[in-house]
Amino acid sequence: MKVLVYGSGGRDHCLADKYGDSPHVDKVYFAPGNPGILYTPKGKRGLIERVPIRDFNEIAKFCKENRVDLVDVGSENPLEEGLIDVLEANGIRAIGPRREYVKIESDRAFTDDMLFRIGVPKPQYRVFRDPDKAKEYVKNIGYQVVVKANGLAAGKGVIVCDDVDDAIDAIDRIMVKKIFGSSGERIVIEERKYGTEISFFAYLDGRHVMPLKMFAQDYKPAFDPDDTEEIERFGGNLNTGGTGCYCPHRLVSPWLINRIIKEIVNPTVNEIYNTFGWEYRGVLYFGLNLDPYNHLDVFEINVRHGDPEWEVISRKLSTDLFEISMAVCEGRLDNIRQVWNDRYYVDLIAMEGRSKAQRGWNKGYPGRYGKGHKIEGLNQIERGVVIYFAGVDEDHQKGLITFGGRVLHVVSGGKSLEEARERAYRNISKIRFLDHNNNNQNCMRYRKTIGFL
Q1: Residue ending a domain, choose from 99, 114, 132
Q2: β-strands 187-191, 432-435 pairing
Q3: What CATH number is given to the structural domain containing 86?
Q4: Is residue 25 part of a domain?
Q5: How many domains would you assign to the chain?
Q6: Distance (Å, rounded) from C-alpha 349 to C-alpha 389?
Q7: What is the pLDDT of residues 395-438, one digit of tens each?
Q8: Taking 90 as the threshold, does the pLDDT of residue 8 lie above it?
Q9: Pairing mode, strands 48-50 and 27-32
Q10: Which residues are paired to 209 by β-bridges?
Q11: pLDDT band at 278 (very low <50, low <70, confident <90, very high)
Q12: Rounded distance, CA 117 to CA 114, Å?
């Protein structure tokens, strides 16, 4: 069987790699992919092949000509742009929601209103189109808030505020300065919650729901909390698309899993199937907060796997991904049995740090970052440690180079969280991004507290 994974980031590389583990699959196409795949064992032997095609109609044509059996669309942007609709119109089996259904992620206000209506717990919120009214609101409510761009923002559209001045600045940045473009035409101002973040996933097949009986801990802030020097130099500890992850979450228990399914997953899926009448086939990602009083809240719902959560959950999952995906397409999720191995996994993300620019300095991800830095040390990575490539490119002289803010994932497993964590940190320390404008100094950075806090 042949599978095509559409995307180019670390999550998409991980999907392609997981499909490549299936005994049912003899070829995985990765489109448009990234050149890092050629530096992996499955890429070197041709099991995973990069197909540098972006156009949706060309993708459909390629699938027909090459008799592709399944397409998995890994990222939210092509889903919102309607790739699933194009594939279905061409009779190509695909996993992912149709364009209409993507608004459960791309329109926060729509989803918040739905959750409030059906009684699923979430923080108090208000939606604004006028920045002046939004500022007046945060001046008067008296508690800390989170300011969110209403639309898609590559996982970075959330600004956590300590006080009123922070909130006013966030409103200006999103609505006036348009740092997230049209996604900031409306904002959601939400009560700030304290507690532990939980990333929970469920597969839907249009009839059934299969919640994954496992969840992960994601880390959003760009820097470690005690990295005060870097936070001050950067101008704050901004949220990112994720800087690391581990699985299983320290709070995983049958009690909590059952509670999440009962209080959050089932009411949401019931609304999707029976009120909206959606034939939703794909993944739902529930971003949750568990506060010190054991109160659960939903702070986001997404229409795809999390990144970096999928990179660790996929390693923990022993069930064949191709079998799950075919069940999603054929309405047979009730026949799938989940199997999880007994190991722990840690994902450390190597990011572009501070680097020399032609004039001045690049602050690094999630701010302005440099590109074209040669990546060294990959040949020193220990056997069994997996590299998932994200923001990379290839240069005919330098070889593999950096091209994005989140460059690659180092994923390690172990019999304990401590063993997995130590192995991941030991291996990421072997990698260097050579800053060609600064005597080839290492401009890679990564967080030091993933799996500790």
Answers
A1: 99
A2: unpaired
A3: 3.40.50.20
A4: yes
A5: 2
A6: 10
A7: 999 999 999 999 999 999 999 999 999 999 999 999 999 999 99
A8: yes
A9: parallel
A10: 204
A11: very high
A12: 5
Same domain, 16 and 72: yes
Same structural domain for residues 90 and 128? no
Distance CA 75, CA 364 (A): 23
Euclidean distance between CA atoms 1 and 203, whole angstroms = 22
Let me know whether 94 and 169 are in one domain.
no
Long-range CB pairs of 161-168, under 8 A, 24+ apart, other chains included: 161/192, 164/138, 164/139, 167/135, 167/138, 168/135, 168/138, 168/139
**What is the rounded CA–CA span in Å between residue 323 and residue 335?**
10
Residue numbers of the domain that contains 58: 2-99
Confidence band of 74 (pLDDT split at 50, 70, 90): confident
Describe the chain by its helix, strand, coil percentages, rounded to 5. 35, 30, 35
Confidence of residue 156 (pLDDT cuts 50, 70, 90): confident
What's the sign of the alpha-carbon dihedral 409, 414, 419, 423?
A: negative
Torsion of CA 296, 221, 392, 84, to 10 degrees: 30
Whether residues 68 and 153 fall in one domain: no
Within a domain: 170: yes
Give percent of the chain above pLDDT 90: 91
Backbone angles phi, psi at 273, to 5 degrees: -75, -50
Name the helix (H) or strand (E) containing 88: helix 83-89
Tell me, yes or no, whether 267 lies in a domain: no
Q: Do 86 and 159 share a structural domain?
A: no
What spatial distance separates the first Cα and last Cα of the chain, rounded to whole Å?
Answer: 42
Q: Are residues 79 and 164 in the same domain?
A: no
The domain boundary residue, chosen from 191, 217, 240: 191
Half-sphere exposure of 88 (CA within 13 A, CB side): 15
Same domain, 86 and 130: no
Name the token pair of 413. 């497993």
Residue 305 lies in a domain: no
Count of residues making up the chain: 453
* Residue 358, pLDDT score: 87
Q: Which residues, including other chains, have CB under 8 Å from residue 91's CB and lie 6 or more apart?
A: none
Report the distance separating Cα 249 and Cα 103, nearest Å. Answer: 28
226-231: long-range pairs with CB below 8 Å, 24+: 226/449, 227/448
Q: Is 94:70 a contact under the CB 8 Å cutoff?
A: yes
d(CA 67, CA 75): 23
Q: Which residues, 6+ apart, have CB-to-CB distance to 103 below 8 Å?
A: 110, 111
Looking at the fold, whether 6 and 93 belong to one and the same domain comes out as yes
Question: Which amino acid makes up residue 9?
Answer: G
Q: What does the alpha-carbon distance between residue 357 and residue 401 come to, in Å, rounded to a whole number?
A: 16
Give the pair of three-digit tokens for residue 212: 């994954």
